[in-house]
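Side project, low priority. Logging it here so it doesn't get lost.
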Amino acid sequence: MGQADFVRDTVERARALVPAGEVLRADHGVSLGVRAPSPGAFRRPRVLRSERRALGSWLLMPFGWLLRIFTATWNPVERLVEAFTEREKNKPGKPFHGGWNSMAGHLARGLVPRTKNPANPPTVVMQVTDRRLHIVYVSRVRALSGQPGPVEAGWATDIRNVTWIRDRSDVVGGDHEIGFVDGSWCTVHFWGQGWSRMSDAFPLRLGHLDRIPNQR
């Protein structure tokens, strides 16, 4: 399956979770922007619990146990490091603004989920409807019968909480900053073909030379 076919198949599977009564305006595969800070493991949501564990995941399980023991021991240190990292990232011009508990922070956390198969993470699809902005997780691990894995709804917010989107293809093609009513924003990356149509579904479209509105 080529990339175009993979993207199309993934997006179609995610569309099954569009809530009844909502009108889908746009959808696309999405990831956290490369330049944006990544949340620590303890902040990332655990998703697709019904997904089967792949062979590679079984082989890596002992290392996962050791990692969990290490992170459980050093979580206070990790939190301290992240606190200083966030303070640095909040400077103007950085690819993230707002803490992990802000709206942008919740979006960023939702874009890097944890599953049983860390070596084969799910594809994340962003959907914009007439009522909500939300993300959907599409498993890439097939069942033993060959059937596709599960699809699961993730983080969502009322579309009225989304105030603007800014195209940052001047930095990386597909990169966009998404802003919220609480003044927070983060950089996401729309990958694959057709990403330029995503911004049409947002309330206010900005170019990279436009100032971020209501910056706090």
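Brief comment: Helices lie at 3-15, 55-89, 103-110.
Revisit when time allows.
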